[in-house]
């Protein structure tokens, strides 16, 4: 379990984090979501003790982060940070050694990790010749060498193709199955929704909400209906809730979605209006964020 | 620490620029200057000149390691490797040692190769090889310590390169590595006594000729060590600031 207790961090002028408290249960996959500059990376660097001058307390299994606790912690930085002039194998070797792996078990583990990140064939090649996606995967691999209990990933899927993304998702699923705790910072709500059990929303240094994703969806996301057709009057829909327009269709937000659907269908029948498409929209994390901040994560 | 050291050595071995600065360029300079300055017919004088030029260029060119040191540290800092390593159990002074030690190996190898080159090609005498080796170890310490202090202090690579040029070339000129000190004005001879290059050059020449006086040797070693230690202390003081800037 990781507890982040009332942490505050200033850079020279900017206040990057303000009184943030989060508890991350062991074995969970925890999403950190927020727009650019929200403070995700800052928080992660504090957890990994790259940043040490901050106010507040961070504890892993009730202990402050020390060199000993760092042994249980794997960090995937937002940028690709590798030794480009040596091979993938040598990079993994470097990180393995830093975490005190040696000899046979080190070599064994390098092979395992190469397989895990799908680079078994390319182990001997120098990293500078790798594609962006391959480097991303190696970037992750380096953090997994010592088989950590807590893996912290800072936007590991930025700028990669769907193939590599799938690979990375699979890796995270495997880590979850193995009972590891994963912290996953991302801009991509869909990813967090798919992978994580919990989420914390950060915005301008403040933690605006956190909790189990399923509960947040229930609490904040208003069910909505997508209606597309000709001649359906907006004010008719507004009887049931709030309406927004999207590419010539209406989105109707209403707590009583099914009931509203029935009414709208019969109304359209009676008035011989053509309904092209109507469906219940599954509430998304994106909507929760919108409800909380009044803005979309990406515009 | 070993982990860092091994990677650094691997990278240095591939670094052609390093080989150029550290070995090829000094050899070219040595050959060029010896051919320019030994046009006279007097064999004895010529050999004397060679005995001065060979160690002179060694002392001058060991300083160029500082460029590589600055590059390695600034690069590590800017691309976030220093920060990434701070998330591992690696102690920060082992990071420093792991980066620094390979440079000391390189400089030692450089000095040995350049002396052997002088021996094989110009038949310089290496009268007291053990003393030469001890001197080499001390000058290596001095140079790499200054390099470390500089690498942890400067903000940009260009600044490091500029400073290295000033220290290496300025120091070489003022210490009589290019022309005998006796030919320079008095105040410059006084300045020379504050420069590690001067002491190293004098003692190298004595040891090559086999005329080392123990008090003089000790004096040189103390000067080299003191300058190196001072630089090392600066490096240690600068290190926290370097780490702070490394956290992007
Ligand atoms: N080294 C630094 N010096 C000064 N300010 C910084 C530094 N690093 C981050 N900041 C500032 O702190 C705030 C939070 O930045 P942080 O990198 O933590 O955000 P983020 O949520 O990771 O953003 P992104 O999604 O763009 O990665 C920003 O306003 C940023 O400008
Ligand atoms: Mg970030």
Automatic annotation (TrEMBL), chain A:
| Gene3D superfamilies cross-referenced by the UniProt entry | P-loop containing nucleotide triphosphate hydrolases
Q: Which UniProt keywords apply?
A: ATP-binding, Nucleotide-binding
A GO MF annotation of the entry reads: ATP binding
According to the entry, every stretch annotated as the ABC transporter domain falls at 2-229
Q: Which Pfam families match?
A: ABC_tran (PF00005)
State the source organism's domain of life. Answer: Bacteria
Q: What is this protein called?
A: ABC transporter ATP-binding protein
Query: Native species of this protein?
Result: Oceanobacillus sojae
UniProtKB/TrEMBL annotation, chain B:
- UniProt topology in membrane: Multi-pass membrane protein
One of this protein's Pfam families, by short name?
ABC2_membrane
Keyword vocabulary terms for this entry: Cell membrane, Membrane, Transmembrane, Transmembrane helix, Transport
Where does this protein come from, organism-wise? Answer: Oceanobacillus sojae
The protein's superkingdom reads Bacteria
Name assigned to this protein: Transport permease protein
GO annotations of cellular component type:
ATP-binding cassette (ABC) transporter complex
Which InterPro entries did the record assign? ABC-2_transporter, ABC2_TM, ABC2_TM_bact-type, ABC_2_transport
Recorded GO molecular functions are: ABC-type transporter activity
Q: Where is the ABC transmembrane type-2 domain?
A: 17-242
Task: Say which family it is in.
Answer: Belongs to the ABC-2 integral membrane protein family.
Q: Where in the cell is it found?
A: Cell membrane; Membrane
Q: What is the lineage of its organism?
A: Bacteria, Bacillati, Bacillota, Bacilli, Bacillales
Does this entry carry the keyword Transmembrane helix?
yes
- Where is the chain membrane-spanning? 18-37, 49-74, 94-118, 130-152, 159-179, 217-239
């Amino acid at each position: 379990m990781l507890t982040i207790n009332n942490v505050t961090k200033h850079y020279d002028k900017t206040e990057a984090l303000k009184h943030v408290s989060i508890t991350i249960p062991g074995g969970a996959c925890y999403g950190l979501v927020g727009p650019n500059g929200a403070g995700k990376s800052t928080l992660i660097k504090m957890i990994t003790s790259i940043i040490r001058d901050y106010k507040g307390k961070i504890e892993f299994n009730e202990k402050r982060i020390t060199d000993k606790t760092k042994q249980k912690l794997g960090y995937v930085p937002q940028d690709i940070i590798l030794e480009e002039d040596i091979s993938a194998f040598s990079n993994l070797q470097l990180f393995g050694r830093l975490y005190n792996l040696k000899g046979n078990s080190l070599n064994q583990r390098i092979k395992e990790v190469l397989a895990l990140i799908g680079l078994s064939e390319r182990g001997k090649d120098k990293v500078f010749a790798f594609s962006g996606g391959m480097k991303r995967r190696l970037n992750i691999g380096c953090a997994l060498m010592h088989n950590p209990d807590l893996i912290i990933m800072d936007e590991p899927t930025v700028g990669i193709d769907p193939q590599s993304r799938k690979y990375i998702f699979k890796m995270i699923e495997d880590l979850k199955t193995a009972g590891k705790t994963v912290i996953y910072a991302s801009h991509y709500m869909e990813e967090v929704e798919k992978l994580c059990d919990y989420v914390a929303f950060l915005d301008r240094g403040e933690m605006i909400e956190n909790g189990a994703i399923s509960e947040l969806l229930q609490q904040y996301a208003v069910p909505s209906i997508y209606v597309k057709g000709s001649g359906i009057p907006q004010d008719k829909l507004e009887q049931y809730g709030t309406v927004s327009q999207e590419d010539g269709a209406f989105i109707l937000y209403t707590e009583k979605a099914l009931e509203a659907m029935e009414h709208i269908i019969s109304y359209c029948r009676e008035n011989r209006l053509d309904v092209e498409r109507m469906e219940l929209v599954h509430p998304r994390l994106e909507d929760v964020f919108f409800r909380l901040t009044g803005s979309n994560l990406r515009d | 620490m070993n982990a860092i050291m091994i990677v650094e050595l691997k990278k240095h071995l591939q670094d052609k620029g390093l080989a150029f600065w550290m070995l090829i360029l000094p050899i070219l300079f040595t050959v060029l200057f010896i051919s320019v300055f030994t046009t006279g017919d007097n064999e004895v004088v010529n050999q004397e000149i060679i005995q001065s030029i060979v160690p002179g260029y060694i002392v001058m060119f060991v300083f160029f390691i500082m460029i590589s040191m600055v590059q390695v540290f600034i690069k590590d800092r800017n691309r976030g490797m220093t920060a990434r390593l701070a998330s591992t159990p690696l102690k920060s002074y082992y990071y420093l040692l792991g980066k620094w030690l390979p440079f000391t190996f390189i400089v030692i190898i450089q000095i040995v190769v350049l002396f052997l080159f002088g021996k094989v090609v110009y038949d310089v005498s290496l009268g007291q090889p053990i003393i030469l080796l001890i001197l080499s170890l001390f000058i290596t310490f001095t140079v790499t310590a200054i390099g470390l202090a500089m690498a942890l202090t400067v903000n940009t690579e260009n600044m490091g390169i500029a400073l290295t040029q000033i220290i290496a070339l300025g120091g070489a000129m003022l210490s009589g590595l290019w022309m005998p000190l006796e030919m320079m004005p008095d105040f410059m001879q006084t300045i020379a006594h504050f420069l590690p290059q001067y002491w190293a050059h004098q003692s190298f020449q004595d040891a090559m000729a086999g005329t080392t006086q123990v008090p003089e040797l000790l004096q040189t070693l103390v000067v080299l060590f003191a300058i190196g230690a001072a630089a090392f202390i600066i490096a240690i003081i600068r290190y926290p600031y370097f780490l702070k800037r490394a956290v992007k």
